[in-house]
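Build the 3D complex.
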Amino acid sequence: MPPIETVIEGGAAAKSMTSTERTPLTTTFVLKVAERCNLNCSYCYMYNKGDTSYLERPKFLSIETATVALERIAAYARRHSLPQITVVLHGGEPLLIGREWVQQFLEERDRVETPPEVTLNVAVQTNGTLLDAEWVALFNQHKVTIGVSCDGPEQVNDLLRVDFDGRSSYAKVRSALELLCKTSGTRWGVLTVVNPETQGSEVLKHFVQLGVRSVDFIWPDFNHDVRPPWPESMLANYFCELFDYWYELPSPPRIRYFESAMSLLVGGRSECDALGLHPFADIMVESDGAWEPLDTLRICGNGITRTGLNVRRNDVEAVWDVPLFRMGLRSKELLAPKCQECAYRRICGGGYLPHRYGRDTGIANPSVYCAELLILLPHIRERIAADLERAGLLAASV
Amino acid sequence: MADDSNYDPLVRVRFNLDSDREDIRPLIEQLNPILRKIVRLVRANPDPSAELDATMLPPGFHKISYCEKCEDEDAAD
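Done.
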């Protein structure tokens, strides 16, 4: 594999990126508080897509290192006048670290943030198997946004979301979802990794019946070196069927992917990083305190996200000179020639960063799901254009 | 690199009251709930250049399914 500098810079010497004028500013930091998980989902980019760097790291992020990270992040936010920062507790399974740690972390957050100058919003992404009333009370008390991973009804969820003995995770996750429906208002949602061998409308129907009001549907992580195993258009058909079902619901839950696609199509903004022409600027903190770029890039090579930087030694801005991070910042500049000519480039943004990656060409490729996106996005466009025209709101279409 | 300085959305909606000389709010009311919400939000907050940078992304990670800013679908009006 060529050095990443060669892949993304075309062999040119790495350019320093220390000017804030050129550097999009990160507002989301992801803390890998637990580098282990109690589930063994086969599609997991942390453990089952070839990256083994987790084995060399502590199982848990220490509260001391987490506090240093919070202080670095808050200082960075002050330097760049960023009033709102999101810090995500992530893993592995973050709840494995225990309530006492999280309680202490939230107290440190309260100490470090200085609203309105700098507010550190906390979110957590959990598999839901450990989420009980005490956890939910703690999160609600501190206004922590909760994301729960669940792939749908039992027969769908348990195809891939099982423990290390192959046992179902569904009953525990369903209990967590029912608890959240009763107690947590709108400050939570579900994340679903799509399996095109199932039916999207059935998955969504399940969540609607439970009372879930926000579902993120995520494309499975593949790239040009390890391509998706399904026949072309299978995922597009899944998403089109799901869109049509969702679009006709009288009281639809939020699906940010579809809402973002619709918004971009009519000249608005994206709310999800899988759509839109924007830099990828999220920064991770690993359990040893390492600063790293976007975690899903781990599917692109074992250890590819390593930086040698650490919250103990380096400010946030040190990440700006990491080649892989810069590659994400330059995602628009590095669009493939085919994408630069495509009418949909502003909508798909060339694809989610890891899905564009190839060992020899970096991210200068269309998404590995390009063909699927060029079925789905015109499908959405046609549906909304027809409705806008019917309402007398269509000015013109390209 | 493609020139996106004059961004033209793929679906052009009649947002501009001055050029239309007509109140389009009753027309927007005819749309289904999802499209109505999107049109209201974009009308109130268009993105003429679509030149998003990270500071413009809403709070929240892509794996977290909640956006406080956009939860109220009537907020745009």
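The CA atoms of residues 332 and 366 of chain A lie 12 Å apart.
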